[in-house]
Design goal:
The chain has helices at about 30-40, 55-65, 80-85, 105-110, 115-135, 140-160, 165-180, 195-200, 250-260, 325-330, 345-355; strands spanning about 10, 20, 25-30, 45-50, 75, 95-100, 195, 205-210, 215-220, 225-230, 235-240, 240-245, 275-280, 290-300, 305-315, 315-320. It is of the alpha/beta class.
C-alpha cells in the first residue's frame, strides 16, 4: 500500500455511524455511511474503532455490513502499518479520526489578541442588530447570523496562520469566489461551453454558448466564422442625474464592446467598468427615454476613458447622432413637437451649429 496516496480513516460507531443508544444500536447516520462508502471506493482504508467488544462488537460489524459498509480492520491496525512501524502500536494509526467526541484543535489553542478583538466587535454588532430588529437573545436573527459567519471565516484565517500579504491574497481569492469570478483565465476550449442556441434565441449568430465556469460569459458564432464574446456583468451603467443607481444596458454593452472587446484567454476584472450616461425623453410616445448620451467610463483600474457617443431612438432602435443634435434634443426636452419637426427654434439652432 502506498501510504502517501491512500488515506486511513478510523471511525467510531456509537454517535458517529449511528445515533448513540448504547448498548443498543441507534438510527443509522446515512450521510456518514455514504461518505465512508465513497472514500472506500476511491481506495481509502477504513478501520472501525469502537469501545464495543464481544457480541456487541460483532453486532455492530454485522449491522455495518448489512448497510454496505465493510472495514479493512476492526479495533486494530492495518497489517501494512504493523509492518511499517515494526510492531502493533497500542494507538490505532490513521490519517483521519472521525468521532462524535472529537475536540477541534482550534478550541485547544489560546486565541490571539486580534481574534479576541474580532469576537468583541461581532458581539457589539450583534447587540446593535438585535436592538434594531427587536429580536431576543435566544431568537435567530439574519443580521447576527451574517456577523457570526464572518467571524468563523476570520477565525479560520487566523488559525491557518495568515497575516499580512497572505491574508490579503486569501481575501482576494475569497472575494472572487463569492462574486462568481474564475480564479484562473478562461480558455476557449470545447469543454468550457454549453450550447444554449435553442434556449436564448438569435441575434444574427448561428450558434451561441454559455460558459460553464462563469455564467455571465457568452460566446456567439456567426455564419462568416466571426466569433464574439460578451460578459453581461462587465459593464455597469451610471446615470449622471442619479449616480447611486446602476443598471445594465444593451446599448452600453454595444458601445463598450467596440472599444474593449473580449479576447481569449479571458480573466475578468474583480469589478465592472462604470459607464456614465444621461438619458431623457423627447417624444412621450417612445416610452421612458428616447435619447442617450454615453460620456465616459471608469475602468476597473480606475482610469477615465472619454467616450462621447450619442444616440436617439428611431424605428424602435437606437441610431447614433451628433453632439449638436443631442444638445438640440436635450434643449427640447419637454418640447414634444420636436420629434415631429414642429419646433422651429430647435431646427434653426441645429442648422446653425451644423453650419
Amino acid at each position: 500500500m502506498n501510504l502517501k496516496s491512500v488515506k486511513i480513516i478510523a471511525v467510531d460507531f456509537d454517535g458517529t455511524l449511528c445515533e448513540n443508544k448504547w448498548p443498543e444500536i441507534g438510527e443509522a447516520n446515512e450521510e456518514m455511511i455514504a461518505y465512508l462508502q465513497n472514500r472506500k471506493k476511491n481506495g481509502d482504508k477504513l478501520i472501525l474503532w469502537t469501545c464495543r467488544v464481544g457480541e456487541m462488537l460483532e453486532n455492530s460489524v454485522r449491522w455495518c455490513m448489512e448497510r454496505g459498509l465493510a472495514f479493512d480492520a476492526v479495533n486494530e491496525n492495518l497489517p501494512e502499518i504493523v509492518k511499517s512501524f515494526g510492531s502493533d502500536t497500542r494507538k490505532i494509526f490513521a490519517n483521519e479520526y472521525i468521532d462524535d467526541r472529537n475536540i477541534p484543535l482550534s478550541s485547544c489553542r489560546e486565541k490571539s489578541n486580534i481574534q479576541t478583538w474580532a469576537e468583541k466587535e461581532v458581539e457589539i454588532a450583534c447587540e446593535h442588530e438585535r436592538k434594531a430588529s427587536g429580536t431576543k437573545e435566544d431568537e435567530w436573527d439574519y443580521g447576527c447570523a451574517c456577523y457570526e459567519s464572518a467571524l468563523k471565516a476570520y477565525h479560520s484565517l487566523a488559525e491557518d496562520g495568515h497575516s499580512g500579504f497572505s491574508i490579503g491574497m486569501t481575501k482576494h481569492i475569497l472575494n472572487r469566489l463569492i462574486d462568481g469570478k474564475p480564479l484562473t483565465p478562461i480558455e476557449d476550449t470545447e469543454d468550457v461551453w454549453s450550447d444554449i442556441t435553442d434556449l436564448s434565441g438569435h441575434r444574427g449568430e448561428i450558434v451561441n454558448y454559455q460558459c460553464k465556469r462563469m455564467s455571465s460569459l457568452f460566446k456567439y458564432v456567426y455564419s462568416d466564422g466571426t466569433v464574439k464574446y460578451r460578459d453581461i456583468d462587465r459593464f455597469c451603467g451610471i446615470n449622471l442625474n442619479n449616480p447611486y443607481a446602476s443598471y445594465h444596458s444593451g446599448l452600453i454593452n454595444q458601445v463598450m464592446e467596440e472599444k474593449f472587446p473580449i479576447t481569449m484567454p479571458y480573466f475578468p476584472a474583480s469589478k465592472p467598468f462604470k459607464v456614465y450616461c444621461e438619458d431623457f425623453l423627447v417624444d412621450p410616445e417612445n416610452g421612458d427615454y428616447d435619447t442617450v448620451g454615453i460620456f465616459y467610463a471608469i475602468t476597473p483600474e480606475d482610469c477615465k476613458v472619454e467616450l462621447n457617443r450619442f444616440f436617439k431612438e428611431e424605428n424602435d432602435e437606437f441610431i447614433e447622432i451628433t453632439k449638436a443634435e443631442y444638445d438640440m434634443r436635450k434643449h427640447c426636452h419637454g418640447c414634444f413637437g420636436a420629434a415631429n419637426n414642429d419646433c422651429q427654434r430647435c431646427e434653426e439652432e441645429l442648422r446653425h451649429k451644423s453650419e
